[in-house]
Every structure is written in structure tokens, then in C-alpha cells.
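Milestone M4 deliverable, item 7.
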Amino acid sequence: MPELPEVEVVRRGLADHVLDRTIAEVSVEHPRAVRRHVEGDLDFAGRLAGRTITAVSRRGKYLWLELDDAGIGSDAVLAHLGMSGQMLVAPAERPPATHLRVRVRFADDGPQLWFVDQRTFGGMSIHPLVPAVGGGLLPEPVAHIGRDPMDPAFDLDAAVAGIRRRRTELKRALLDQTIVSGIGNIYADEALWRARLHGSRPTEKLTRAQGRAVLGAAAEVMDAALAAGGTSFDALYVNVNGASGYFDRSLDAYGREDQPCRRCGTPIRREQFMNRSSYSCPRCQPRPRARS
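Output delivered:
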């Protein structure tokens, strides 16, 4: 699933192409793509016709389009990319993509906005903007998430304190979007490698310095990934023009099982974690002693 850098790449591309444009018509090509919009596909399409996109916003891994004069209670289109969702900007004359789910035509007859989703795990839905737990206005379903490390208003000390209050493992806390948003499995492993910490370290034993180090490393690695266009392990993650990112070539831990650690040469180890995998260096990131 796309993480913060990949979603930010898409957000920037959308801002370049759809900002301040008025929607003429929306076609829902597959009802599953708007299943989270409980009023149905006809309501979804009807509520967007004639509306102007005034902002393309993101917090963590969540992306939304703000409409008209956005404020508390105003409509926003929340985009769930899921495992294979793509937001593409396409010339009006281009033939429809194979897995086109939602097509947005604009009043200026310029490039269209397509939501393409091969596996149909993602989707689009309209929700009111409400005050968020971390401050600001977010679509109602995601108002519970915290700010991310790349947010100018991110409070590092508060985030560290929130992690240390949890009685869980460090990697689980990093993936908890209510504390810090935007960090997924890939960048959690990369941040832990940079901070020389194992993901199973108990959060209550994490020092403030270690907490600051791992969140600082998360911000650094995601910023580097953003500069490379994100991380693409298959053809399903692309930017709005259909191009892949290249940060996977710079990963230090994730996906590098049995390859030498770039720091000490020890083979990277893969372990099972929450139906996924974790990658770490046994020497640089020693597993903490078992709880007594």
C-alpha cells in the first residue's frame, strides 16, 4: 500500500493538474469504487457536478480534494488508493484504461482525472470536513489520525511522549496512525535501521533520545523517497502521469533479505510481523531481551 512519500507524489501531481478546475461530469464506471459513499454512485456523481476543486490535501497516507470554499462541514472527496489505486491525469481523447473506475470530466474540456484500480480495494467517497484530533480540518473518516513527521506543525516531543506511553512494540507504535501518521511497513523498517533500533523494543523502555532518533530518521528517509518519486515494487504504484518511483534502489533494510548490511556487512534478516515481514540487521539492530 502506498505510504506517505508515494501519496505526496500523487498529491503534488494532482495539484498541478486539477486545482481550481470546475467539474462538469463524473462517471462511475464500477460501483465498488464508491462503495464507501453510502448514498450510492448517482449521489456521488451528482454532488460533484459543477463543483470546483480548491485544494488537494494530504495527511499521512490519506489524500482528499477540497471543494469550493472549504471549511467545517464542507464537502471533500476522500481517495482511498488501497493496494492498486491510481489517480491519473489523462488527455480527453485517450481511450479508457482497462481498470478505469471513476472518470472526472472538467468544464474546460482539458485533461481528465481518472481513478484506476485493478484490484478494486481502493475507492472514492464524499465526506464533510471536521476538526481533526491533531488539529486542522480532515474528512470525517480520517479525523482521528495524527500529524505526520513531514507536517510543519508536527510536534516531535508530543509524538515521542505518545509512543512512550503505549505498552507495545516500537514498530507497532510507528504503524499506529493515531500517534504518528504516514509511516507504513517499508519506511518503519528503514527508520529503525537508521536509528539502530529493533522493532520489537518495548515502547515503555524507549528513551526520549531514541524516540527522537527514530522519528527523525523516518522524516529523513521519507523525504529522500519523495525526492526519488517514491518506492515502486510493481507497476501498480505510479504518479499521475503513470511513471514509477525509484527509491526502492536506495532501501537499506526493507526487501534486502540475506543481502549485506550497508553499514556492517552482516546479512539482513527477515522476520514475520503482523502477516507481513520486517527486515533488520542482526548486528546493528540487536533484538531486545525478552520481557521478564
